[in-house]
Amino acid sequence: MTYLLSVPSSEKLMFPFNQSPASAQAEFHYADEKPRAATGQNVTREILSIDGPREVGVTAPEDLLVVSPYTDRAHLLDLTALNQAQVLFTKALTILAPVTTAYATAPYISSFNWDAVFRWLAEAAKANAFVWEEQFFYIVIFRSQVPPSTDRSHLEALDKKAHAEAMETDGLLKYWFGTPDEDGRNLATCIWRRRADAQAGSSGEGHKAAMRATINMYTEWKIERLKLVIGDNVERWEIVPWTG
């Protein structure tokens, strides 16, 4: 495996990231979850809620996956919009979790259980008789600092609206954010099917409103963009700076 540290990018944020400790906890408590045997089903998370009645012919609940701390219908990923490799990888990402509480300032690669994610993916590909060929994905990282005394409820509302807009692209495979440390520093990350999805996901009014709030309310913020490469048969992986 190749481990390369990420570098800062001047590219604008694909969509805003929430800084709410309360909602972040919904994701963080899965940190000790272990990979399960790979099947064709959603083996690591349940859909926690689906708003409203569903019409015949609309995507079935089993084709919808929770990929962020937000669990209502507008925030679920429609797996039928993805190819098989993307579906397997997205399910593997449901076990992505931090391995350190210092993720706000620690190197990105060493902050998460990537090895477990790719072990799960390799097992799932084998169980589904799927030959994994090299794939790459687009990652956005947002490091930020907000004064600890800040009322984050406004940021949370903006973030949720922007996330729902981003999910309309069918390309946001994972959205994770942590809990701010004692100095108000935090980390959030998005893993996208491709960069074009990220660009489309940042075009809505919710994203623009959240960007204005970022400028006005954050003490500092920095964006990094990376390329995740998963080699043939999931035998290697690397995260490198995006240069496209």
Mind explaining what this structure looks like?
This protein has 244 residues and is an alpha+beta fold. The protein contains six helices and nine strands. Strand 6 and strand 7 form a beta hairpin. Helix 2 crosses helix 3, helix 4 packs across helix 5 and helix 4 packs antiparallel against helix 6. It starts with a strand and ends with a strand. The N terminus is likely disordered.
> Could you say which structural class the secondary elements and strand pairing correspond to?
alpha+beta
- Portion of residues in helices? 25-40%
Low-confidence segments, given as residue ranges, are: 1-58
> What Rg do the Cα atoms give?
17 Å
- Sequence of secondary-structure elements: EEHEEHHEHEEHHEE
Morphology call: globular
What is the count of helical runs?
6
- Biggest sheet details: 7 strands, mixed
Span of the ends, CA to CA: 22 Å
Q: Care to count the β-strands?
A: 9
Q: Kindly state the mean pLDDT as a whole number?
A: 77
